[in-house]
Amino acid sequence: MRIAVIEDNEALAHGIAFRMQDTGHAVDLLHRGDDAALHLSQEGADLIVLDINLPGKDGLSLLRELRASGDDTPVILLTARSETQDRVIGLDAGADDYLVKPFEMDELDARVRALARRRHETLRPLKRIGTAEYDPIGRQLLVGGAAIEIPRKEVAVFECLMRTPGRLVSKAALVDHVYGVGTDVDDSVIEVYVSRLRKRLADYGIVIKTARSLGYYIDMSP
């Protein structure tokens, strides 16, 4: 998944980002509420970890605006406030879950997994591709119900390509999805991931094509 971490405590934000990336997610880091609102309107996210106390625009205002616009992206609120009424306000504003600081990263991991499972059960979004099925919530390719073993970074590349199957995705967009917006990573690394993916997926009728110097796309022709 692509996770937006919106937290003004930079040490905590980077700690969360490291943990999420270590479990195979792409992370966009933002430290101001107004910057986050613009980013989410343009880039979106699969899940949002949102601090309540933010400069520029507070987390509750940002959350209410997201929900008012029809955005149902799962949101985990972070706050130092522990009073019951504050939790109620956050949940009433549209949060899906709530963590009080300080918290253990293992607990955050568990909350992220629980929200992913909940969306999976609600949406059941299996997509047929070649002789396989892709589960974008579980981030797995399945053949006969069994998962194909694919490294996390390669799954992230495939995930990005499957968002718009048959349409070109630039190397820069792939880098942003795999590593997060603004990460200083040479896009040649994407060439390596695509090359490996092609070899892994060839037996399942999944073809990734190259538009030279532009990017890649999944061939959806029969």
Structure summary:
This protein has 222 residues and is α/β, with parallel strands linked by helices. 44% of the residues lie in helices and 21% in strands. The protein is elongated and about 55 Å long.
Structure in words:
It is a single chain. This protein is α/β, with parallel strands linked by helices and 222 residues long. The chain is built from 8 helices and 12 strands. Strand 1 (2-6), helix 1 and strand 2 form a beta-alpha-beta unit. The two termini are 28 Å apart.
User: What Rg is obtained from the alpha carbons, in whole angstroms?
Assistant: 18 Å
Major sheet: arrangement of strands: 2-1-3-4-5
Number of helices: 8
What oligomeric state best describes the polypeptide chains here? single chain
In angstroms, what separates the terminal alpha carbons?
A: 28 Å
Q: Proportion of β residues?
A: 15-25%
The biggest sheet, with number of strands, parallel, antiparallel or mixed sense and barrel status, is: 5 strands, parallel
Give a quick set of tags describing it.
single chain, about 220 residues, alpha/beta, 5-stranded parallel sheet, 4-stranded antiparallel sheet, 8 helices, 12 strands, about 45% helix
